[in-house]
Every structure is written in C-alpha cells, then in structure tokens.
C-alpha cells in the first residue's frame, strides 16, 4: 500500500493532487474489498467443512453402531445355530443307531419262522409259527438338554394255523 501511494504520489504530484487521492483511495478500497471477500469465503468453506465433518462423524458413529449390533446378533445367531446343529446331529445319530441295532438283531438273531406242511387225505395243513424278540426303545425326547431313552423288552408270539381241503 505504501508502494502504491509513493508511486502515485511521485507520478501525479506535479499538477493534480485530487487525481492522486482518487487513485489512492480507490486501490485502498479495492484491496480492502478483496481481503474481506476472501476472508468471507474462507470462513464460509471453513464453516461447511466443520458442518460436513460433523455429519460425517455422525453417520460414521451410527454406521459403527449398527455394525456392532449386526456383529453381536450374528454372533448369537451362529451360536444358537451351532447348538441346534449339534443336538440335531446327535438326535439323528442315536436315531439311526437305534434302527441299525433293531434291524440288525431283527434280521440276524431274533427272528424265527417255522413252517409246517402236512398232507392228509385231500387236505393241506399249513402251520406258521413266528417268534419275535424286540428291544423297543420307547421314544426319546429332549428335556433340559439331555436325552432320555426308555426301553422295554417284550416277546411277541404269533401262531397261525391254516387248513384247507380239496373236495
């Protein structure tokens, strides 16, 4: 500013001092105006910078919040899913073990079939005798995270006598 003043003073000091003052105040006002202009826009962008940074922090916080609860519930979801699969696996394990045991003894050891055929005159006598031995598990159920199995042994006798004749 002193430079401009000195320059215009040396240039216009010969005849027209009003002209010199005019330019002096004009340039002074000009730089003053741009100074506040940039200051205003600096303050403006500074304000919006903190404004959007506040909202950025706000959404970031809620994003972290929901992410945390998502992870929390997903953890419990997989936790219960794991235990569900665990009991489900053991349920079918004992289920198939029971049927394997049942059919194994049924078809290999404890099944007796007797067939008698008699012929007398024109008559045919068929005699069937079945003998079953069961290990019958009497249904298992889930109660307080434990499996209880009840079984009972019983014998089943089946007697069949068939008679027909040709006349």
UniProtKB/TrEMBL annotation:
Q: Which domain of life is it from?
A: Eukaryota
TM ranges are 20-37, 49-67, 87-104, 116-134, 146-164
Which lineage?
Eukaryota, Metazoa, Spiralia, Lophotrochozoa, Mollusca
Ordered alphabetically, the record's keywords are: Membrane, Transmembrane, Transmembrane helix
Q: What is this protein called?
A: Uncharacterized protein
């Amino acid at each position: 500013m002193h430079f401009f003043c000195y320059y215009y003073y040396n240039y216009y000091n010969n005849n027209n001092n009003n002209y010199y003052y005019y330019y002096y105040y004009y340039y002074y006002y000009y730089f003053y105006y741009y100074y506040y202009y940039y200051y205003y826009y600096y303050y403006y962008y500074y304000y919006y910078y903190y404004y959007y940074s506040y909202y950025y922090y706000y959404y970031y916080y809620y994003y972290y919040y929901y992410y945390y609860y998502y992870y929390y519930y997903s953890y419990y979801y997989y936790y219960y899913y794991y235990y569900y699969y665990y009991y489900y696996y053991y349920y079918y394990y004992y289920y198939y073990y029971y049927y394997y045991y049942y059919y194994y003894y049924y078809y290999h050891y404890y099944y007796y079939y007797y067939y008698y055929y008699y012929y007398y005159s024109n008559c045919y006598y068929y005699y069937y005798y079945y003998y079953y031995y069961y290990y019958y598990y009497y249904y298992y159920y889930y109660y307080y995270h434990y499996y209880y199995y009840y079984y009972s042994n019983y014998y089943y006798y089946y007697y069949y006598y068939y008679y027909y004749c040709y006349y």
